[in-house]
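Dock S-adenosylmethionine; give full complex structure.
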Amino acid sequence: MHMNEILTENKKSWNTVSHHFNGVDALPSYGPFAQSEDELHLFDQIKNKSVLEIGYGSGHSLRYMAEQGACELWGVDLSEEQRLTAESTLNGLNANLFCAPMEDDIGLPKEHFDIVYSIFAIGWTTDLPGTLRLVHSYLKNGGSFIFSWDHPLYPHMQMENGRIYLGSSYQQEGPYTIERFKGEDAPMVLHKRKLSTYINELIKAGFTIEQVIESDVGERFDGTEGEVSDRYYSLYKARQYPTTMIIKAVKM
Ligand SMILES: C[S@@+](CC[C@H](N)C(=O)[O-])C[C@H]1O[C@@H](n2cnc3c(N)ncnc32)[C@H](O)[C@@H]1O
């Protein structure tokens, strides 16, 4: 499938499933069962900073940024439905919301942002090197790019009757399709990529890596056992291997 076909198909599907993601995967959370920004403190100062979110979804992370005092809110997302939801979440706050693929250069200002971030969206890109080059171009010198995504091992792990096993080769990178995303008539194409691929592509795009986090279970689950479960995300699984990779990279 060609990149443009994937984007057209994924956009249609995101418009169908967006209602499942209202306020899900949004800051201060970095991902399912993972430590939150309140524990990790990756953002340093947000007050008076200009921020751009890649894949703003329902707009809850942008609202968090506004609450922390960001002076400019910008975002790009593939789905018109998500833009409508984000506008309602932001409830009149001044934000520049674009509906476009993150892969495209749509004329967002270059060398402009203090912070570019992405919570569970960057892995949707069909062109990781191109997307990272664009992100790098949007940042001022000294600016940070912080993102979270499924831990790269995650899509390979399977679960049956409480037993976790490797269902496919971690060595195998490339596109794969989920025919019924969120149980809806919404086929989605994603890409399996290794942790080293993300790191090496960031370096090639010109970034310096400041932190790589393979998530552990967040403090809010202290004292909660987590019953055996075959669900894609569960506390039980999260206690055994990371749900989320979180990377902070800097433009020097
Ligand atoms: C899990 S949601 C992100 C949620 C978001 N962090 C929030 O605070 O609500 C993933 C988002 O990525 C967007 N997306 C998927 N593929 C994309 C692409 N190629 N370019 C831009 N956005 C994309 C989807 O439309 C969806 O809104």
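Observed: The chain has one domain: 3-152+172-225+245-251.
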